[in-house]
Each structure stands twice: as structure tokens, then as C-alpha cells.
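Q: Hi! First time doing this. I have a protein sequence and I read that you can turn it into a structure. Is that right? Here it is:
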Amino acid sequence: MAPGKKQELVNQICQALERDSRVISVQKPTIEPDYSQRKTIYPDWARTSSDDLLTGADRFQVLKLSGPILFHVHVPRKNQPLFHGNDDIPTEDYFVSWDGVTAFVLWGQDDDVVVPLSGGHIVSEILSVALATMTAELYIQACSPECDNQFFHTAMVIRLQSGASQDRFDLKLQPLRRGKVEVPVPSDMDNFEVLEWMHLHLGLDSDRFAEVKNLARRVIDIESSARDELAHLLGHYYEHASVAAQPLWRTLKKRWRMREWRREARQILAGLWLSLANLETLRRDWEDSRRNFEASGAESMLLFEIDYSDDTTSVQSLEVSHFDATVEQISHNLDYRAVVMATVGGALAGGLAGALVGLIH
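A: Yes, that's right. Below is the predicted 3D structure, encoded as C-alpha cells:
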């Protein structure tokens, strides 16, 4: 994408947000083209087809901006969506920073004992509406396809610290309990300045987390799909072996119904070999991405720990050697039968030709 196109795209997003009556104000960033990069993202299995999951044809591009778009929204409580029916909308005003990959949503509430589950979800709807005017789409990457939570599973409690200046203040996350960390910030910041400060200190780490999370989910999804396909193939083999063990005259209908099973088996095998190749490539990509992400400071890791640890355990525990051996054995059996049939067919053809020559003479 040409440098001017990136700024034009950001201008269009900001204009779309400004047209939304729920948006009070928008601060448009000046984009640095060299630091605004395209990234490849894969959808989860629930939002793709088995063929696209196999080939990667479902991948799409996102644009990570060098600086965030900042906006303030005001939505009456009654017009905000409830998360799983929890009637705990904390406010009518939210302040948002979004860099194309990560959105930080800030609001005020009277106490920090409980972080409302329904807080801030209206922001995704507002972004979706703005992007739809540009034939674009908002993709929210959850911890798993079954989860519809739109935020990290760890919430940040922003604590204003008096007497501190933003010019000499570094990020320091402090664990409160599992699922919640405290973030002290200088009290001389306004809402947008807090968001810019958070993006400055957490934007790169969040971007790296989004990448490693996406690759991990794709590895897990392909492995799960491949195991389902292998189980389907072994089911075919079992059915074929069961029919073959019975007298011919009792299984004519079953044999006729199964006459094309080897063709389907070869198609499934081709897909399984492709799955194994993709798994190997994506796991290497994930390892590289994981190393970059884990180079992040220990402070920011507190924010991602819950969403990151389960995926890491799942990917590292994947063992595909027996899977590979099973696929190879089935392929060998199919190829061996093809060779036998070709040999027998050649012998019969040769015998028939010999007989014809004998008759002619």
C-alpha cells in the first residue's frame, strides 16, 4: 500500500466515526508509513471452511497503524449491549484508542472491586459500523472460537498517582489478583493522554501478542481438523474390512455402495499430507513469533498471561509423529494395492494377447 493511501485510509475511518452520532470527538493521528505495516491474520475454524483451513486461502490483511486513532463515545446505558445478560453497564462514556490491531477502552467507575463484564462492548459495534462504510470488517480475536469475550481476560485498573509527571514515568503493572492488574499513571494526564501513554508502552507488546495468538489458534485448529479427517478415514477402513470379512453374496449391496471409497480415501490422504506440511510451517512461524513476544518486558506479560498460557501449552504439547506414521501407513497400503492391481491387470492383458495371437495362427 502506497504511503499516501495509508493516511487516506485513516482519514476515511475517522470521517466514518465522526458521522456516528454516538461519537463525541475523534483525534486523527498523522501516520508514519514506514511504521504502519500490513499483517496477515487467519480466522478461527468457526469463521472459515474446512478447505480454506487446509489451504490458508482464508487469510486476510490488517493494517497496524504507527499511532492510534483516539475517540470518545457517549451511549445511554439502555442502548448498550449486555454481556451474557449481565446488567452491569458502568457508564455512558468511553474513551478509546485503536491502532488497527489493539483497542484500549477506558472508562471511569466509582470503585474497582468488580470490573463490569458488559463495560465497553458497545465500542466494537461502533468500529464495525465505521469500517462497514469502507467495505471493511472488524475481526475480534477471542481466546478461543467458543469465547465471545471481546477483551483480554485480564482487566487493567488505572490508578491516578498524584505528584508524578508523565515526562518521567514508566509503565509498571502491579498484580491485584488473577484477572486484574493495577496500572499507576500520572494524575496530570487526561483520558486521551492516558490512552496514548498506554499505547506507547503496551502497543508493541499487544501487537506481538495478537500475532502469536493468531498463529497458535491456526496450529490448534489445523491439528484438530486433521485428527477429525483421520478418524473419518480410519472409519472407512474399518467398514471396508468388516464387509470384506463377510461372504460375498451377503454383502453385495454394501460392496456396491463402497465401490468409490478408495477415491475418497486418496482425497482425504492428500488433505492430510497438506495439513502436516502446514502444521510444520506454522509451528516454526509460531516459535519465531513466540520468541519475539516473550522478549517483551515481564511487566506487560502480566496483562497477557491468562490468554497466552493455555495456547502455549497446547501448541508445545502437540505430537504428530504417530499421526504422520498412520497417514504414511495408509498411503502405503493404498499404493501397494494399486501396484498389485496394475500387475494383475498387465498379466491378464498379456495372457489375453497371447491367446489371441495363438488363435490367429
